[in-house]
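Narrative summary of target 7.
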Amino acid sequence: MTQKFKREPVKMVPAPSHGILPERDALSRPVLETRNLGIDFGGLHAVEDFNLIIGKTEIAGLIGPNGAGKTTVFNLLTKVYQPTIGTILVNGRDTAGMNTVQANKLGIARTFQNIRLFGNMSVEDNVRIGLHNQIGYSTAAGIFRLPSFFRGEREQHERALELLSLFDMQDLADHQADSLPYGAQRKLEIVRALATNPSLLLLDEPAAGMNPHETEELMENIARIRDKFKIAILLIEHDMNLVMGICEGICVLNYGRIIAKGTASEIQQNPTVIEAYLGKRKEGQA
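Modeled conformation, tokenized:
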């Protein structure tokens, strides 16, 4: 039986926008900063006044009840949606006017609530799709099969296997993606996102459908990914054991607005958060 994951204590310090950062990231430029971010759908404020700052190597959590707007925030950050108002800065650069491809090249990669793999392609090819912006040869070299083409193909193959080895999946490289068990497909989606060489990895409910043992393993892997690649990770998750066990800073969303920010212990004791999840206790109710 694997040893229970234990997060190392981390000191959080105040940051602009009424946020907090791990002390180790305080002197580095934040990987993400949103300012007054919002989006309307036909007059409905799906997300409004969303201010968040994430440190260069922070593992952060975005939580809230169903329908709070969490995935909408992810869609804004990755430019699936264009904000109605506000600013998104990635490594200090404004993403205004960018599309999803440009946002990815800037350093944002994501997984999805519902797995979106290329099911009829091999495991390795799914990873190599993530390596598309790191192709080391020209179109002409590919057409005429020049030495640089074969060198680039070999490097991509080796890189794909290296990334798959993070989850001990290198021996599954030739398997069809949709033939993998559910948990392995979740891992493959993370590997594909990592292949784009992000500075911020967005995980949308990565533990969905996993049993407690798989969730424990996922926590270990998230921490290992952060440490190995020196990147920030922002995750949406309903499994509170995972969130409280791995996240350093946590942001709570309800009806499209932030209702609390803080450490795990602060969020657990916040009465506004408790009310959002459990409802308001009626007067005189035990």
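The two ends are 41 Å apart (CA to CA).
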